């Protein structure tokens, strides 16, 4: 696919982060002067491209903000459990045990504010430009660039405040004397209110995807609408706070010092109405649709091919092959050994999915086998050997170690395959992170309609012609082939007709099935104040299913080829007890989740790994929601000690850090 920035522009975006200040000053002395840049549409376009270049860094969206900042949830886990759930590194952060001295927190803060600083420069420059005057031939083009900068700045701020909570809001470029480079925190509600105003403007300036060759590798009008809705719904939701706010509702599950609160009923209603307005704009535009095939959409993403037919993805952050993106390396199906089929064992598979999540899918839901990979790719001998073909090997009793199958080497491009067969070290996949899919829009819409109308089947003014149930049905039924479509329809029809029941059984569950591994689940659970509850429920579900025989002790399966290199996953006896299997009908078998031992007190999965999961958030007692935790519902990350030290006294940590 055609990428919107060249290697030169990407390098410029990275080099632009060099600075004499360790805090918010991100100007580069090599920049052209502002008047020259913003008197030219060409130079302005290059300046905007630098924003996309900034999103290609490891500490922004090439790795962290697409993968590791989004875990853990009730279905997605970081690897390295048990003794590996320590404070240093991603494992500590994923399990909410992070150290304030972790240097990556510093680098993430600096890199993300670097993008914001560049966006501030662009926004100021365009607003002052003589080209951005109605009647000027360049007005519309410069307006588009302004819309891109406003939207990207909003996206970055939104991601940061969900990660850190209250942060400084800086909306102007740093002065040469650094007089405005050091700032105190701004209440995140104020930040979100400001971002929504910016996005209202951006929706008027940006083109729709597909107009005049404008692709979803740019922020689009549809994405600006949907991001505004997402921010409004987050603003209406729960958040842990440094202190209580007047007029806000405190959750039943809340820390006594750092309360978890949401706005009052009237303010929430207004925010949901705002979200509904913008979600409706996307739906009625017809510019974005669901790809009828869930699997094909992920095949295209792995192929680095834009979906120009359905444009299901409202915005994909553009990456550059062999230069940026760890999708398919840090997350995805893991290649554990060098082999003749794929070459280098170029993956780490840091993000894992769970046994209860795998078994939550309906048997004919095609999303299960796309999303969950209960296997690894290795060699017949299990050794690094490029003379041997690759084979799929089941993961056996790994209930918290299933890979995310949405990024799959079997779907990656011929270029990637050819290069991977030649190299012997890590190389970047270039796969775009997807910031918003049309299925997000539909489920957000279903949530808003259910909330405002008081149930899934009622209507509400100024909607898109769909009830909440109908919007959810579009997402759920897409996941079933024609043979089983009636089964999907019956499931949607069976969902509760009351608001709370439909929310819990429909929206919350569909969110898990549709988006696992993509980085949405954790933050939706947070705004619903369900993160702790759902993690606790996942642990209890695993123990219950282990006891009630949901998991066989062994599974049996066949292969799709004579060389036994590929497993026929349609043949696996996922749901059949061992004693009911005719072993002669199958070519192979392996131990499965049911092998875990509930009684001995020494089983690694039950007694070591399970208690360690998210222990900083829920404690390490599987029969308690929060035994021994420092602060209830502390899902936020701390500001690093280095950033605090460099802030000249403006910043400090809260929440017991």
Automatic annotation (TrEMBL):
Pfam families membership: SusD-like_3 (PF14322), SusD_RagB (PF07980)
Keyword Cell membrane part of the UniProt annotation: no
Domain SusD-like N-terminal: 22-231
Entries under Gene3D superfamilies matching the protein: 1.25.40.390
Residues in coiled coil: none
UniProt keyword list: Cell outer membrane, Membrane, Signal
Signal sequence range: 1-23
Localization in the cell: Cell outer membrane
UniProt key word Plastid: no
Family: Belongs to the SusD family.
Name under which the protein is recorded: Membrane protein
Source organism: Xylanibacter rarus
Lineage: Bacteria, Pseudomonadati, Bacteroidota, Bacteroidia, Bacteroidales
């Amino acid at each position: 696919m055609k990428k919107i920035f060249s290697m030169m522009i990407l390098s410029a975006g990275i080099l632009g982060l060099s600075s004499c200040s360790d805090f918010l000053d991100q100007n580069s002395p090599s920049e052209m002067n502002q008047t020259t840049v913003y008197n030219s549409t060409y130079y302005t376009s290059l300046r905007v491209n630098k924003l996309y270049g900034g999103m290609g860094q490891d500490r922004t969206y090439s790795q962290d903000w697409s993968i590791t900042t989004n875990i853990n949830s009730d279905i997605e886990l970081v690897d390295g459990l048990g003794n590996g759930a320590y404070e240093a590194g991603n494992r500590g952060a994923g399990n909410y045990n992070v150290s304030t001295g972790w240097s990556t927190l510093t680098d993430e803060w600096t890199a993300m504010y670097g993008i914001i600083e560049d966006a501030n420069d662009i926004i100021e420059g365009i607003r002052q430009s003589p080209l951005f005057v109605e009647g000027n031939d360049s007005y519309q083009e410069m307006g588009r660039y302004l819309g891109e900068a406003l939207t990207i700045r909003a996206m970055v701020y939104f991601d940061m405040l969900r990660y850190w909570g209250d942060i400084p809001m800086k909306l102007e470029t740093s002065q040469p004397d650094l007089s405005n480079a050091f700032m105190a925190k701004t209440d995140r509600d104020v930040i979100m209110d400001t971002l929504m105003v910016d996005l209202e403007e951006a929706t008027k300036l940006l083109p729709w995807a597909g107009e005049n060759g404008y692709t979803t590798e740019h922020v689009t009008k549809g994405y600006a609408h949907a991001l505004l809705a997402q921010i409004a719904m987050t603003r209406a939701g729960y958040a842990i706070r440094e202190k209580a706010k007047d007029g806000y509702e405190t959750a039943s599950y809340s820390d006594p010092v750092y309360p978890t609160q949401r706005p009052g009923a009237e303010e929430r209603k207004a925010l949901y109405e705002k979200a509904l307005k913008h979600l409706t704009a996307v739906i009625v535009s017809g510019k974005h649709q669901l790809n009828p095939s869930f699997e094909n959409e992920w095949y295209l993403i792995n192929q680095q091919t834009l979906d120009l037919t359905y444009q299901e993805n409202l915005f994909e952050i553009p990456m550059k092959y062999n230069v940026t993106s760890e999708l398919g390396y840090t997350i995805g199906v893991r290649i554990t050994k060098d082999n003749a089929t794929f070459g280098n064992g170029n993956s780490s598979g840091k993000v894992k999915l769970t046994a209860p999540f795998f078994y939550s899918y309906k048997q004919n839901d095609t999303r299960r086998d796309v999303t969950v990979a209960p296997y690894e790719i290795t060699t017949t001998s299990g050794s690094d050997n490029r003379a041997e073909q690759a084979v799929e090997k089941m993961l056996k009793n790994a209930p918290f170690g299933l890979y995310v199958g949405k990024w799959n080497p079997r779907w990656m491009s011929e270029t990637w395959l050819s290069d991977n067969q030649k190299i012997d070290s890590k190389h970047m996949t270039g796969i775009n992170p997807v910031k918003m899919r049309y299925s997000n829009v539909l489920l957000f819409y279903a949530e808003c309609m259910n909330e405002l109308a008081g149930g899934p089947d009622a209507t509400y003014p100024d909607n898109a012609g769909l009830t909440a149930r109908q919007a959810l049905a579009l997402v759920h039924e897409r996941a079933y082939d024609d043979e089983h479509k009636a089964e999907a329809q019956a499931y949607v029809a069976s969902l509760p007709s009351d608001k709370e029941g439909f929310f819990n059984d429909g929206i919350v569950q569909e969110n898990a099935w549709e988006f696992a591994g993509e980085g949405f689940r954790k933050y939706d659970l947070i705004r619903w104040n369900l993160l702790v509850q759902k993690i606790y429920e996942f642990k209890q579900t695993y123990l219950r299913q282990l006891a009630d025989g949901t998991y066989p002790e062994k599974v049996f399966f066949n292969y799709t080829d004579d060389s036994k290199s590929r497993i026929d996953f349609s043949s696996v006896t996922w749901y059949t007890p061992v004693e009911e299997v005719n072993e002669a009908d199958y070519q192979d078998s392996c131990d499965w989740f049911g092998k875990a031992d509930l009684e001995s007190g020494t089983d690694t999965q039950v007694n070591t790994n399970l208690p360690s999961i998210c222990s900083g958030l829920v404690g390490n007692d599987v029969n308690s929601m929060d035994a021994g935790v420092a602060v209830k519902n502390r899902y936020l990350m701390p500001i690093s000690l280095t950033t605090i030290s460099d802030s000249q006294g403006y910043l400090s940590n809260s929440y017991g850090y």
